[in-house]
Known about the structure:
The chain is α/β, with parallel strands linked by helices. Helix content is 31%, strand content 23%. It has helices at residues 54-62, 70-76, 81-98, 102-105, 125-134, 151-160, 176-188, 241-244, 247-259, 273-282, and strands spanning 2-18, 21-35, 38-44, 118-120, 140-144, 165-169, 191-195, 215-217, 236-239, 263-266, 288-289, 307-308, 311-312.
Amino acid sequence: MQITVTRDVFRLAEVFTISRGSRTEAQVLTVRITDGGVTGWGECVPYARYDETLDSVTAEIEALPETFDREALYDLLPAGAARNAVDCALWDLAAKQAGKRVWELAGLAAPGPEITAYTLSLDTPAKMRAQAAKHAHRPLLKIKLGTPDDMPRLEAVRAGAPNAEIIIDANEGWSAEVYADLAPHLLRLGVTLVEQPLPASEDEALIGMDRPVPVCADESCHDRSSLPALKGKYDMVNIKLDKTGGLTEALRLRDEARDQGYDIMVGCMVGSSLAMAPATLVAQGARVTDLDGPLLLAEDRDHALCFDAAGVHPPDANLWG
């Protein structure tokens, strides 16, 4: 089995800003695994929030032995970006070798399109209102917030897109006091979900706090081992393959989280259609799908995912799976 890792850069259509900073491009790692003349591939986005860099993740992948399978991968790499790209490449490889689609190999029903959120990046209220108006035709908008001065931004987005469903991602940017102050206004403005309002290290403050709309764990939830610490704090979990370490764990996390009473959100880092393709399988029937990474790019992979009024569609076999 031969493994190669390459770095790819995709320009963003616009500057993308969250509470931690701005970017103009998506830097990703593409993993290709070749066995018996057949090649499968996967993509990951190393994330500094989790102490990952392009170099560190590349080193993890290049240190793998010559032969292993998906189950052995659990013992070789921790949950994170490196395991994600390798796991998804192994799924793609297996599908090509078997002449089947990944969902068939995984025992899943044939997937269909899912409505996805479209993300508005953090900006001034006036610019966020303009962004919202430009995308007011979309049924679900996600707003990047995470500062003490977010109320004018939220009001501006609602004014720009009066009929869209709105969800909020604070990216750990609020204190308990800021969240408590904003919370009563969320229902009035039609917000249906708040994602990770407090830092993961401080989310104990959510226990006993009023949650007028569901609160979703993102940075606080990586894989199944995260679930015990979420009790009493969150109503939903955001499953991202770069956190779970691939499709294998993402499907297991989805099932176990549902069994424990959590609603499901399926999200993404800013990457190409190759990164989103496996996540479309996890997103089937999710309460919220947030796989808009390719919509934020100025360029994408060949055979890119299809986005239309029905949502994001499962991948063509020429892309993945």
